[in-house]
Amino acid sequence: MAEPTNTPMPPSTPVPATTPRSSSPSVPPVPSLTPNASMTTVPLFPSFPPGQTSDNTLPKRPIVLHIGDPIKYNPSTYSEFSAQFDVIRPETAERERSAFITALREKRFGDFNAIFRPFWGTGGEMGRWDAELVSLLPKSVKVFASAGAGFDWADTKLLGERGIIYCNSGLAAAEAVADFAVAMVISTFRHIPWCIGAATLPYLLSDSGGKDDVEGAKRVFQICHAQATAASHNPRGHVLGFIGFGNIGQQIAAKLGYSAFGMRIAYFDVIRKPESVETELGAVFYDSLEGLLAVSDCAVLCTPASPDGKPLIRAETLATMRPGTRFVNIARGSLVDEEALADALESGLVGSVALDVHAEEPRVNARLVKMAGLDGNDGGKPGRVMLTCHNAGGTIETHVGFEELSMRNIMAVLGGGKAITPVNLHYFPKKEEGA
Known about the structure:
By secondary structure, the protein is an alpha/beta fold. Helices cover 34% and strands 11% of the residues.
């Protein structure tokens, strides 16, 4: 693998040593690192607005706009971070969209240089970073570093066109997501939701009088024991097709490929991977999504965004699958037309599904929920859908990495170096030759 699997970010990330700092004897205290504690930045020079100086003061420090909760896991890195920058963290109410827009228009945060969002579950109160928000950013902004692998909530194209580097934190979540995806892929071959449901649901759904239907429960158990065999397969030898083959896709391939579970690896990506990657993973490249789906026994969606903003998996693309193809989504719910997917399941075009992400979270598609359960009318029809609650990347190690990697990205860019995990450099204005 190109990136390490057990460290949230490259250990060799350079830390700027020449960033201007204050030699003032009165250095602002580091804000509280206690989870959910309020954090208020004390300006280095209280008599001036953040980031401004008079003729006789030391050089001003870059300003970082911190959206979301205070950091929790990396106090030593944050001490380094806050020593280099003036950090401004608006309170929750000021991050609500209307209030946030007003604050940007009034330049309450000054000419800040970076946006820092260390957690996926907080810091998104202002909603989508679309043209309305991006147009209000000061020209001083150089980098937007955020937790999470997906970035469909931010117009990275518009940010790039304005010269703002957007950095995600997919590298930090890669191992956790890959581990979870392995379980989901296996589930589509072995019908794990059916097996779990048949062992437990009859007891959970006993009549209101409290009397267990023991004979009914035995019947459901026996049906699953007998019939799941005829519907299940070993993953070995089947084609595992990746829609997007970045760090997460490559880690899943390594875990399920020929040296482990023996699956054959195929992929489609907008940029073909180096020959060394393909050779190491035994991966075959397809230059179209339709071509990949036509050969896949199980398709895994692990691309962070759609090029045109529309769902990648929709009726037209599903129609190119072979009957019975399995489908796994550990990317973004918005990349799938869930009604079209439900239609494909009902028709048998798609055999089984495992979804960790959903189009309208936290609401889950009602038709897919129904297909995830057992049909009591025939004593235990298999649930062909595994549904989870956006849990794939949810480990402590991931959140430690989100926080660390976001800070390292900002320190690298504002320190004059290269971003560690940029995703939108291809949208930057092209420099004229010789410029």
